[in-house]
Amino acid sequence: MKIGTFEINNGSPVFIIAELSANHNGSIDTAIETIKAAKRAGADAIKFQTYTADTITIDCDKDDFIIKDTIWGGRKLYDLYKEAYTPWEWHKTLFEVAEEVGLVCFSSPFDKTAVDFLEGLGVPAYKIASFEITDIPLIEYVASKGKPIILSTGIAEQADIELALDACHRLGNYDIALLKCTSSYPAPINEANMVMVKDLAERYGVISGLSDHTMGATVPIVATCFGAKIIEKHFILDRSIGGPDASFSMNEEEFTAMVKAVREADSAIGKVDYTLTEKQKKGKDFSRSLYVVKDIKAGELITEENVRSIRPGFGLHPSMYSKVLGAKLSKSLKLGDRLCINDIEFK
Description:
This protein is α/β, with parallel strands linked by helices. It has helices at 28-40, 53-56, 77-84, 88-101, 112-120, 136-143, 158-170, 195-204, 218-225, 252-269, 278-283, 321-324, and strands at 2-3, 6-7, 15-19, 45-50, 104-109, 126-128, 149-152, 176-181, 207-212, 230-234, 289-292, 307-310, 328-329, 344-345.
């Protein structure tokens, strides 16, 4: 998978996305400063959400349209999205700012008109939000554009994931990544289930990653250790500015620390390799080996009293100890001499 200038594969660094979402709080200046801060914090990409209240829901007061059991509980869907959306007339400017500072920029569309709009901006990829993974017509339309697709699985059962993948495949699009996501705001760490990151990759033969709503950097670090190659986290200049997503978003300092931790975790994973580096080989100097601990004359027997396995590691390997006990020395050795194979007369 390639998004912008970034190759994303099992051998590549983790691709880290800062999610702007509603964290502009209605100000394009705040949105611009957030993009710049995301770059300073070490993000590889900035992602938007492209919708309006009218493209994502309807203005209805019926109970079905009132949010329950979340941090937005009691609010009408239409009112929340009207507050949270990123004005479409900002997009071109924000894309230009992202390009100027060196961030890949793309978005989550929520209907066909948003896809058409984003195509006009030349987006390098698309993200399908967790709650849209069941919108097969939307996924098919996105897949038809032939660009990489990142699918979040926050509300998806296995059948939902397979339907979404099948929709992409029907349109000839196999350039897909799946993100483990817990669609709770904020999400409890004990529901993160990061072993799924590995399973998604192995089960579906895709790049896998994490769209994270937990607090802190623990879950992104664990995801990295389970093979996540994409990590997305909500980003805000300062939680004190408020907004619908502020409570579960990272500020610049926190995001910077997370990026550092993820990069270090990624670097620490390494590969299965039992050979030693030169530094590790040097460390063997401090291992055990066979040394003379009491003067021995030529012809005398080696015993537990005159030869022992001690540090350092320049003498004969300790695995030879039982074989040399009772053997004669071919020459005299003094306390502190290494025991070598040529010093011994075996029967």
